[in-house]
Amino acid sequence: MDNAKETRHRITVCTNCRHVGKPCRPGLDLLTHLQAALAQAGDALSDDFSLEGSVCMAGCERPCTVAFQATAKATYLFGDIEGDADIGALVSFAQLYRDRPDGLTRESERPTMLGGKTLARIPAAIVSAERQLSLVLQ
Ligand code: FES
Fold first, then answer.
1. How far apart are alpha carbons 41 and 71 in whole angstroms?
2. Residues 6+ apart with CB under 8 A from 109
3. What is the pLDDT of residues 34-71, one digit of tens each?
4. How many whole angstroms from 41 Cα to the centroid of ligand 1?
5. What is the pLDDT of residues 74-127, one digit of tens each?
6. Which of 57, 81, 119 to mutate to test the pocket of ligand 1 (most atoms within 8 A of CB)?
7. How much is the pTM?
8. How far is CA 125 from the centre of its chain?
């Protein structure tokens, strides 16, 4: 990775289940496999994302949970992510998310394997604040 280039995107996987009070094996495996899949995907995808494990992301009823975040982009939280079965869909979504200036995607654009698995889509705070300011100034 070019040291001068700052990674703007982050994928976070719940890897520390609060219910059992110890690291979550499925979450840790998902994190490892996703990292490898991003590297294999090419298109500099792995250079554009940092990956990390996290404590509970409040999607406990629908594990595994995975979040996509980036500066000035919408944040997504997905649940019901199944280990290897959903890796390809997460990589496809990463590409789509990276290539959108605001990170926003419609359900119909997302990989079908992620259908019904969006727990939250939170608009970027900066974008929202700029829109409100432009409305006030009109
Ligand atoms: S323990 Fe993983 S989302 Fe709550």
1. 23
2. 96
3. 999 999 998 889 999 999 999 999 998 899 999 999 99
4. 28
5. 999 999 999 889 999 999 999 999 999 999 999 999 999 999 999 999 999 865
6. 57
7. 0.85
8. 17
Ligand 1 geometric centre to CA of 53 (Å): 11
What is the spatial distance between Cα 8 and Cα 122, in angstroms, rounded to a whole number? Answer: 17
With the CA atoms of 49, 55, 57 and 59 taken in that order, what torsion angle do they form, in degrees rounded to the nearest 10? Answer: 120
Helix crossing, 87-99 with 25-41: angle to 10°? 60
112 CA distance to ligand 1 middle (Å): 23
Cβ of 113 below 6 Å from ligand 1:
no
- Does the domain formed by 9-137 have CATH 3.40.30.10? yes
Token representation of residue 131: 């829109």
**AA identity, residue 77:** L
